[in-house]
Amino acid sequence: MKTYLYILAGLVLLTGCKNDKSVSEDKQEELADNGPVTVETTVGPLELPAPFASESVTKESKVVAWPAGKTPVAAEGFKVERFADSLKHPRWTYVAPNNDIFVAESNTKDSANRITLLRDTNADGAIDERYIFKEDLNQNFGMLVLDGSFYIANTDGLYRFPYTEGQTKLEGEGEKIVELSASGYNNHWTRNIITNEAGDKIYISVGSASNVGEQGMEKEERRANILEVNPDGSGEIIYASGLRNPVGMDWNPVTGDLWTAVNERDELGNNLVPDYATSVKKGGWYGWPYSYYGQINDPRWEDDPHQDLVDQALIPDVPLGPHTASLGFTFYTADQFPEMYQNGAFVGQHGSWNREPFSGYKVVFIPFENGIPKEPVDFLTGFIPDENGNEVYGRPVATTVAPDGSLLVNDDDGGVIWRVSAE
């Protein structure tokens, strides 16, 4: 049965519609008194507070300019430099097989809707050439070069363009090979794409249209999923489901498993629900919106819990903190960094709005040993000038390994791509 769980999950999204996801104050108090629950993740036990054990708050960040000469702060033994700036919300970076660096400039509002091409022709860590590669897109995000084609994941679908290696401008409107829903909740408009080693499949991350299904589950068809398609867009299956907002994806270089970073749900309290990084099992069901961290029922679905699915929900591997907006994810497979970083993963945390004090606004590193993750540690911080205030210098998202082995970090609200290199 589990082999076909992704099919069942897709069918459930078309049924059981229920718009009212509020919980009465009396019920919230009752739930808060239940006490914490401990779950066993791959990196160890995780104690989760009861729903509504703390107040759900709204604390929006105000982005202010980086002071002259100031940069984020990297772990000991690393230096941080500006790699590219004067970009308009550089949301994602993709390095093509010929080492051309493509940057998706897009946003929830006032989106540039373009791709910029950057080149470091002499490998000195500085940009030598810069081109507007493609304009007039629709909240573009993921990019991929495969078999003479350039793929762009707009919010409304996956597009394929003819492409010759080295070209500096992409012409034409492209062919829309996969239709995707363009509605979105907060920043769930992003659609990321990667291919497998064989190059015969493309994987598309599609976030949910809501926080916890409050718009009705008919709006969630083919959402909160990772989709798998052939390079021509045919043969679509739901590879994994119940993932509220999967964005960054990469392949574990030791085990070959697909991994993703997931932005979890809001409004259950200051410390619920922690975002996570996890291996992704084909046919796996990860709980959204009915449960989290395995079999912990979301109380907003008390009247219609879909317990059959809850009982089969997988526990994610690596908790990344509540409301951190963990979106970027990449394995480090270069050799510039010290040995402890080899085959580990970097995660960009865009930062909270549903927590006091702020969480996220940094890059964390997950060490891996023989393909198995360990507890994450901070790697790039300094985005929050005052922990008690509401100002931030920027919001990191994509983490990308550059051709020279350095790490590129997209600070989308700061308009900068930072380059982190070993000293």
Could you please describe the fold and organization of this structure?
This protein is 5% helix and 37% strand. It has three helices and 34 strands. A hairpin with a 2-residue loop joins strand 11 and strand 12. The protein is globular. The protein starts with a helix and ends with a strand.
Number of strands: 34
CATH topology: Neuraminidase
Strand order of the largest sheet: 4-30-27-26-25
Share in β-strands: 35-45%
CATH superfamily: TolB, C-terminal domain
Based on Cα principal axes, name the global outline. Answer: globular
> Main beta sheet, described?
5 strands, antiparallel
- Provide the structure class: mainly beta
Architecture, CATH level 2? 6 Propeller
How many H/I helical runs?
A: 3
What is the level 1 CATH name?
A: Mainly Beta
The termini sit apart by 52 Å
**pLDDT under 50 segments (min length 5)?**
1-18
Helix content: under 10%
For the record, the count of structural domains works out to: 1
Task: Return the average pLDDT rounded to an integer.
Answer: 94
- Radius of gyration, Cα only, in angstroms? 21 Å
